[in-house]
Specification:
- The protein is mainly beta.
- 3% of the residues lie in helices and 64% in strands.
- The chain has a 14-stranded antiparallel β-barrel. Strands 2-3 form a two-stranded antiparallel sheet.
- Strand 2 and strand 3 form a beta hairpin.
- The longest helix is centred in the N-terminal third of the chain and has 10 residues.
- It is globular.
Length: 318
C-alpha cells in the first residue's frame, strides 16, 4: 500500500504555490516611552512648564502572518501576505492596539535589474485613540556590481488617515500623504562580515500643516556578522527633520528643526543551537536587541534621550 501511495505522489504535478506561516511574540522595555526631554521641561504657549509624563514602561506584542507565493515564468514570482498583530502596554495605553495588514508583491528581473513593485493596506485599532488606515504602494530594485557590491533603490507613496469621530475630534488633522526615496549600497567584506550604507528622503504633507508637515533626510551605516553561532547586526542612523509650518502653541518665534541619532544592535540565534531536542530543524529563533535614541532639537519638547530593550521569539512553518 505504501508503494502504491508513493507512486501516486510521483505522478502528480508539483504544486506551484508555497505557503508559509510566521508566528512571533516578544516584550519591549523602554526607559523613556513618552520621549520626556532631558531637563523634564517643555515649551507651551511661549512658557516653560514641567514635562511630567511617565518614562518607564514595557509592551507585550504578538503577531501571526500567512504568505502564499508562486513563480510566474522563469524569473518572476507573486507574493500574497495577510498579517495580524497585537500590542499591550503595561502602564499606559498609547501602544494598546491591534493591526491588520495585506501585502501584494511581484518580483521580476528586467535586464540586470531585480524589481519588486508592491502594494500594502493596513488598519490599526487603538484602544484609546482613533482607528487609523493606510495605503502604500511603491517599487524597489537592486543590481549587482561584480561579486561583492550591490546597489538598491526604492520609491514609495503612502496615504494615511485617522478615523475622526465624536470622541477623537482631532484625528483627521494628521491625515497625510507621503513620498519617500531610498538608496543603498551593500558590500560583502568576507564570508562573515557585510556592510550596508543607506540614504533616504521623505516628504509628508498633512491635512493640518502645523506640527505635521515636514521633510526628513536619513543616513545609515550598519555592519552585519553572520557567525556560525549567531547573527549580529550593529547600525547607526542619523535623521534630520525640517518642519514647514511653525507651531505657535509651543513657541511663536521658532520653526521646529531637529535631528535624531539612533544606534541599535541586534542578535539572532536558533534555539536548536542551544537545545537541539526542542528545535532540531533550527527554525525557532530568539531575537534580542538594544536601541538608543538621542534627539537634539531647537524646541525643548523634542530634546530627549531614550533607551529600549526587546526580546522576541519567532518561528516559520512552511
Amino acid at each position: 500500500t505504501l508503494q502504491e501511495f508513493e507512486e501516486e505522489l510521483r505522478d502528480r504535478e508539483p504544486s506551484l504555490w508555497t505557503l508559509t506561516a510566521d508566528i512571533s511574540t516578544g516584550v519591549l522595555y523602554s526607559d523613556n516611552v513618552n520621549n520626556v526631554s532631558k531637563t523634564r521641561k517643555k515649551s507651551s504657549s511661549d512658557s516653560v512648564v514641567g514635562f511630567n509624563s511617565a518614562m518607564q514602561d514595557r509592551t507585550l506584542s504578538g503577531g501571526i502572518g500567512f504568505s502564499a507565493s508562486r513563480p510566474i515564468g522563469e524569473e518572476s514570482s507573486f507574493l500574497f501576505n495577510i498579517s495580524h498583530s497585537l500590542s499591550e502596554q503595561y502602564q499606559e495605553t498609547d501602544d494598546d492596539y491591534q493591526s491588520y495588514g495585506l501585502t501584494l508583491g511581484f518580483d521580476t528581473v528586467l535586464g540586470n535589474q531585480s524589481l519588486s513593485p508592491y502594494m500594502m493596506l493596513s488598519k490599526s485599532d487603538y484602544q484609546t485613540d482613533a482607528d487609523s488606515f493606510s495605503v502604500m504602494g511603491g517599487i524597489g530594485g537592486f543590481f549587482t556590481i561584480g561579486e561583492r557590491n550591490s546597489i538598491s533603490y526604492g520609491y514609495s507613496y503612502s496615504d494615511s488617515k485617522g478615523n475622526q469621530n465624536s470622541t477623537d475630534t482631532t484625528a483627521a488633522e494628521t491625515n497625510s500623504i507621503s513620498h519617500a526615496i531610498t538608496l543603498g549600497h551593500d558590500f560583502i567584506i568576507n564570508e562573515i562580515i557585510t556592510s550596508s550604507i543607506s540614504l533616504g528622503y521623505a516628504d509628508s504633507n498633512a491635512k493640518i500643516d502645523v506640527g505635521n508637515d515636514y521633510e526628513n533626510y536619513d543616513f545609515g551605516l550598519s555592519l552585519n556578522f553572520a557567525f556560525p553561532w549567531a547573527y549580529i547586526s550593529a547600525s547607526n542612523a542619523v535623521t534630520f527633520n525640517d518642519y514647514k509650518v511653525m507651531d505657535t502653541s509651543l513657541v511663536s518665534d521658532r520653526l521646529r528643526s531637529d535631528y535624531t541619532n539612533t544606534f541599535d544592535v541586534m542578535l539572532t540565534k536558533a534555539i536548536g543551537d542551544i537545545f537541539p531536542a526542542i528545535d532540531p530543524n533550527r527554525n525557532l529563533f530568539i531575537n534580542m536587541s538594544y536601541e538608543k535614541v538621542i534627539s537634539e532639537a531647537n524646541i525643548l519638547n523634542y530634546d530627549y534621550i531614550g533607551d529600549s530593550f526587546s526580546l522576541s521569539f519567532s518561528r516559520s512553518f512552511k
